[in-house]
Amino acid sequence: MIMMTVAFLLGLILCLLFGIPYIDFLKKKTIGQYIRDLAPESHKQKEGTPTTGGVFIIIATMIACVITLFMAQEFDTNACIVLITFLFYALAGFQDDFLKIKGHENKGLSARGKFLRQVLIAVLPVLYVIVTNEHGTYLTFGKYSVDLMWFYPVIAIFAITGASNAYNLTDGLDGLAASTGVFAFLACAIIAHLSGQTYLAIIASALTGALLGFLKYNKPKAQVFMGDTGSLAIGGLLGILAVMGKFEVYLIILAGIFIIETLSVILQVASFKTTGKRIFKMSPIHHHFELCGFNEKQIVVGFAIFSMVCGILAVSLFKFLG
To answer: Quick one: which of 207, 236, 246, 300 has the most CB atoms within 10 Å?
Structure first.
């Protein structure tokens, strides 16, 4: 618990410190966000807000992790695999952000190109778990477990890629992804700690602190957006922690808010293509609530509370069934 606290505080302090000069740099270089034409009208005023804030979240988290892992004597191959994969996702997200900035529009990597990168990066931790863990192909839920054998890699890669995309979809309002992410990663840290996986608990704690620090600059009205640099990497890490820690089933619960956001998009598209009608006024579902008259702060607080409940439920089930 001491090392988790150290990682959390380092992530928090470093993110707060790095945020000021990085945002100033973005403003000087006029590196801002381009808003989709389909976005709610109220979002037009956000055009030009500095983006790629995920860069200083990633840097703060990586430094906090390395320092704390060395202090705890937990800096091993397992930790390296997690951090390297996290970094790869950040680079993929940065490439997407760079193309948007370069093209002066909200079009970066193609959907196929982004998905292919996410899948290929996810292969690294999944293969590592299968090769090094004697129960690598098992899904476990409390005392119950099932060996999925050759089907496990499909499920694990889907979990990591899905988490990356789901978190990316959630990043649509000021402070939404960061606030909901705080509770999801805090739940991951506690579950990892309870299962004796100190290195995962430290990494999750460091990112929890960094996300809390990022909220200082991202809360409404946001001074900076995390961009795909942050959202793809942070979402990917959520899935990576679950796969490396073998608590994949609990990911469904603790990432409940991100799953709902994703399902709202899937249902919206499916309904419109099959019936010509929309279920929601706009998807992801946070935009639906916007168009229903709720302001950003109300939506962010409500979604954050829901994420907290999901985290508490996941941890409680883990303790009860474990």
So the answer is: 207
* 14: phi then psi, degrees, rounded to nearest 5: -65, -40
pLDDT digits (tens, 9 = 90+) for 5-58: 999 999 999 999 999 999 999 888 777 666 665 556 565 666 668 888 999 999
List, for residues 62-92, the tens digit of each pLDDT value: 999 999 999 999 999 999 999 999 999 999 9
CA atoms within 13 A on the CB side of 292: 12
What is the rounded CA–CA span in Å between residue 269 and residue 262? 11
Q: How far apart are CA 84 and CA 93, in angstroms?
A: 14
Q: Are 214 and 41 in contact (CB under 8 A)?
A: no
Token output for 106 = 């909200």
Pair type for strands 138-141 and 144-147: antiparallel
Residues near 78 by Cβ (< 8 Å), separated by ≥ 6? 199, 244
How many Cβ atoms are within 10 Å of 316's Cβ, its own excluded?
A: 12
